[in-house]
Amino acid sequence: MTIEMTTSSTQEQLPKGRLLKREKLAKYTSWRVGGPVDQLYIPEDRQDLIEFIKTLPESEPVFWMGLGSNLLVRDGGIRGTVINTKGRLKEMSLTGDGSVYVEAGVPCAHVARFCGERGLTGAEFLAGIPGTMGGALKMNAGAFGGETWAIVKSVEMLDASGNVTHRKPDDFKVSYRSVKGFENEWFLACLLTLQQGDTAVSQQKIKGLLEKRGATQPTNQPSCGSVFKNPEGDYAARLIEQTGLKGYAIGGACVSEKHANFIVNTGNATAADIEALIYYVQDKVEQQQGIVLQTEVCMVGEAI
């Protein structure tokens, strides 16, 4: 084993994957904030990941990260191990029965495009989700009226001992932006069930959704995607805008002028700035609108 020093971390070359010690997570998150993790593992592929998990003590805290969206890592970082699947676990294929096999590291937008090119309909909404399939499965991500688990046929799960299990949707309690069950297992891959349709129609729908996303969301600024869940029968963005909070800032964190349910990093935000702004928005909306907004973003790690 060789050990190389880098400016931000110590990198150990494992047989296949990469293990980074005290790596700062800011460059791995879509908000561009986040302190160091004890160790970050970037697997070479699915089997390499399974073998690495087997080397960890079963008590080791393990956190998974894909594109780093829908995620706020606090400035003190994360204790334990982070598995980063960006650019890894990227297999995707059409199975014999017409289902689509997708590994956890595949970006949702790639899934939408893959299905559309094959005339499969029902996955177009994934083009509007700025994350990976693993993250979409974990939170039942949705966009433009579609939700992830509505098209899931089965999933592959990995546990802390390195065992792989196949499970069905009925094994989980799935609701709006929430998936519960098997807390000590992680999503490795899934099978999606879609309908046969027209390739041109599907691709045009994806194009339209992407154009709508670009027109209504601050896609050119660092954000996490939607910060708050939509209350039943209403929209978080409407409530925030009605409260007069568009453009309100704390430090380098600002409520987007383009879409009020987005908080953007204007260039020098800390995770503490963003978290403070999240709580401020919640407090003001509750005071003025009488509704408590629930966070959609996952906040993890330690504050400084």
Task: Produce the secondary structure layout.
Layout: E1 3-5, E2 10-13, E3 18-24, E4 36-42, H1 46-55, E5 62-65, E6 71-73, E7 78-84, E8 92-94, E9 100-103, H2 108-117, E10 120-121, H3 133-139, E11 142-143, E12 146-147, E13 152-159, E14 164-167, E15 173-175, E16 178-180, E17 185-192, E18 195-196, H4 199-216, H5 236-242, E19 249-250, E20 253-255, E21 263-265, H6 271-289, E22 298-300
Parallel strand pairs: 4-7, 5-7, 6-22
Antiparallel strand pairs: 1-2, 2-3, 3-4, 8-9, 9-17, 10-18, 11-12, 13-14, 13-17, 15-16, 19-20, 20-21
If you had to describe this structure to a student in words, what would you say it looks like?
It is a single chain. The chain folds into three domains: 3-84, Uridine Diphospho-n-acetylenolpyruvylglucosamine Reductase, domain 2; 92-215, Uridine Diphospho-n-acetylenolpyruvylglucosamine Reductase, domain 3 (2-Layer Sandwich), CATH 3.30.465.10; 219-300, Uridine Diphospho-n-acetylenolpyruvylglucosamine Reductase, domain 1 (Alpha-Beta Complex), CATH 3.90.78. The protein has six helices and 22 strands. The strands form seven sheets. Strands 1-2-3-4-7-5 form a six-stranded mixed β-sheet, with no helix packed on it. The chain has helices at 46-55, 108-117, 133-139, 199-216, 236-242, 271-289; strands spanning 3-5, 10-13, 18-24, 36-42, 62-65, 71-73, 78-84, 92-94, 100-103, 120-121, 142-143, 146-147, 152-159, 164-167, 173-175, 178-180, 185-192, 195-196, 249-250, 253-255, 263-265, 298-300.
